């Protein structure tokens, strides 16, 4: 059981890594539209913590710290509020460890907000020699990140050196088995140019991840940095996409992947994607109030936004030209249609005149007669389809006339019995279904004949769609049976079971059962069976 759980976690953590950049790009584009849903989920979790009723200061401190951790990379101003509350509690309890932890948390938030002086003052106020190992690790980590934030927008050589100095100190106190140690070690490898070791270490972190959290996103981001330095464009894009997706799903607003993605697509000439990711990055930075990222993104945003506006302006101008061009073509086309229509009318008049002239010259000019005979043959071929229509229209009128005569004979018969006071015979005749049954039988026989005249190969074609052992064998004298009539109506375009039931005088459930039963006999896909029935056979030539 334990092995299965570990294997499941492994599959989940490697889900994104197995997908291509195009698939990941589609996922990220979709996830951007779902940002509010993820933010609502995080805020709901925060509200649950806020509703907790603390029994004592220690519990309140712990609850405030949990709220701070959720706000830390989501909404920094709110995170500051809860850290300050904890500073008050820690001073009331006169707990040096709590005071140091709160001060370090506030110092980190201040550097993120761009309040470098306040952050530095807090860090200098802490005596590292009094700290336990865990708090000392936090101290070195906060100092390292302080210089990271400070040097993001300011080129300070000493600041960059201090990042690595404090990271080295951090690595000395962190347990080597922790994720934090491995992430910082990979950053050290990247800084030193030891890219192969960094790549191997980060891949292991991603493969070992049990859930897609902040550490997972950070590992993917650093792996993107490694491939950027190795000039492996596809892998660089892939891991920045994975990092951005993870940040979005965890509602992490303090992120860097969107900014890097924007630059990649900008340099690739995909201004729409570059604009989308830049807009997302600056919205997150402003919402979170990450000052150093906002400053860093603003310059890039102005460049990409200008390119986007220029592209939209160019597209609009092109669209206007296309509209003008289409309008001109439409006017020309309208003129051509009018001209062709007039020419067709002239041609029709000329044909009529030629026909009369041909009749007059038929006796005196044999060559013209032969030519006219050929033209008549062509006209005969063209009118063949009209003859088919005339034949079935005539059949329709004959059928209607026959029904009228039968109704008249039936009326006379009933009238005679009524006059002769043969009431028993009259009621017997009225109650009898024989007439209806005979007429229905004739109706179906006529329907079968007409349909098979139109589609003589229907039964054979229909059977070819069924599995061999379910092919329909008609009884002697049968043209179609009930099952074939249902699908004959479908072939004629009547697919509504209500109409089919009314025509064949069956219940709706019976029609449904017939259709379902026959679909289950299909040689191929049962879902496409009726579509194939609707396309079988061709109208027979007369």
Q: What topology emerges from the helices and strands here?
A:
Layout: H1 2-13, H2 21-33, H3 35-50, H4 57-71, H5 76-93, H6 96-113, H7 116-124, H8 133-152, H9 157-173, H10 179-192, H11 195-208, H12 214-229, H13 233-249, H14 257-267, H15 271-288, H16 291-361, H17 366-382, H18 384-419, H19 423-431, H20 434-454, H21 458-464, H22 482-491, H23 497-504, H24 508-519, H25 529-533
Helix pairs in contact: 2-13, 3-4, 4-5, 5-6, 6-7, 6-8, 7-8, 8-9, 9-10, 10-11, 10-12, 11-12, 12-13, 13-14, 14-15, 15-16, 23-24
The string of secondary-structure elements, in order, is HHHHHHHHHHHHHHHHHHHHHHHHH
Q: What fraction of the residues are assigned to beta strands by DSSP? A: under 5%
How many E-type strands?
0
Sequence stretches where pLDDT stays below 50 over 5 or more residues: 1-13, 380-392
Which structural class should the secondary elements be placed in? Answer: mainly alpha
Mean pLDDT: 83
End-to-end gap = 74 Å
Shape: elongated
* Proportion of helical residues: over 70%
Biggest sheet overview: none
Number of helices: 25
Rg for CA atoms:
43 Å
Structural write-up:
78% of the residues lie in helices and 0% in strands. The protein is mainly α and 542 residues long. The longest helix is centred in the middle third of the chain and has 71 residues. It starts with a helix and ends in a 9-residue tail after the last helix. The relative contact order is 0.05.
């Amino acid at each position: 059981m334990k092995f299965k759980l570990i294997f499941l976690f492994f599959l989940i953590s490697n889900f994104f890594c197995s997908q291509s950049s195009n698939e990941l790009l589609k996922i990220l584009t979709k996830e951007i539209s779902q940002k509010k849903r993820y933010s609502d989920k995080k805020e709901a979790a925060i509200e649950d913590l806020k509703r907790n009723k603390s029994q004592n200061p220690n519990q309140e401190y712990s609850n405030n710290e949990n709220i701070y951790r959720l706000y830390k990379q989501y909404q920094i101003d709110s995170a500051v509020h809860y850290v300050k509350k904890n500073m008050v509690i820690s001073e009331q309890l006169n707990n040096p460890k709590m005071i140091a932890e709160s001060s370090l948390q506030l110092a980190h938030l201040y550097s993120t907000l761009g309040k470098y002086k306040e952050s530095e003052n807090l860090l200098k106020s802490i005596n590292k020699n009094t700290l336990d190992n865990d708090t000392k690790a936090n101290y070195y980590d906060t100092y390292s990140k302080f210089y990271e934030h400070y040097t993001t927008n300011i080129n300070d050589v000493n600041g960059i050196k201090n990042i690595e100095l404090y990271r080295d100190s951090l690595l000395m106190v962190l347990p080597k088995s922790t994720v934090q140690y491995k992430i910082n070690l990979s950053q050290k490898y990247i800084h030193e140019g030891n890219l192969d070791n960094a790549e191997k270490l980060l891949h292991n972190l991603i493969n070992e991840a049990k859930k897609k959290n902040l550490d997972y996103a950070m590992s993917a981001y650093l792996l993107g940095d490694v491939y950027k330095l190795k000039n492996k464009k596809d892998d660089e894009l892939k891991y920045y996409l994975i990092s951005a997706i993870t940040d979005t799903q965890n509602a992490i607003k303090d992120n860097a992947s969107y900014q890097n993605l924007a630059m990649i697509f900008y340099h690739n000439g995909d201004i729409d994607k570059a604009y989308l990711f830049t807009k997302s990055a600056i919205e997150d930075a402003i919402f979170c109030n990450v000052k150093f990222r906002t400053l860093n993104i603003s310059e890039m945003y102005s460049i990409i936004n200008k390119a986007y506006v220029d592209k939209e302006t160019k597209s609009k101008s092109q669209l206007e030209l296309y509209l003008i061009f289409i309008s001109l073509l439409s006017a020309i086309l309208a003129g051509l249609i009018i001209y062709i229509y007039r020419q067709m009318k002239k041609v029709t008049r000329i044909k009529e005149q030629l026909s009369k002239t041909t009749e007059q010259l038929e006796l005196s000019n044999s060559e013209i007669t032969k030519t006219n005979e050929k033209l008549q043959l062509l006209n005969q071929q063209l009118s063949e389809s009209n003859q088919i229509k005339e034949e079935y229209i005539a059949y329709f009128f004959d059928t209607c006339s026959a029904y009228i005569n039968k109704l008249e004979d039936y009326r006379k018969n009933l009238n005679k019995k009524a006059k002769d006071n043969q009431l028993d015979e009259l009621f017997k005749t009225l109650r009898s279904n024989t007439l209806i049954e005979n007429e229905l039988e004739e109706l179906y026989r006529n329907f079968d004949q007409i349909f098979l005249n139109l589609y003589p190969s229907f039964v054979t074609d229909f059977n070819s769609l069924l599995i061999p052992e379910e092919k329909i064998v008609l009884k002697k004298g049968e043209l179609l049976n009930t099952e074939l009539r249902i699908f004959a109506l479908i072939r004629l375009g009547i697919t509504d079971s209500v109409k089919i039931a009314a025509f064949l005088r069956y219940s709706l459930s019976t029609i449904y059962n017939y259709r379902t039963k026959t679909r289950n006999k299909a040689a191929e896909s049962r879902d496409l069976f009726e579509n194939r029935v609707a396309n079988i056979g061709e109208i027979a030539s007369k």
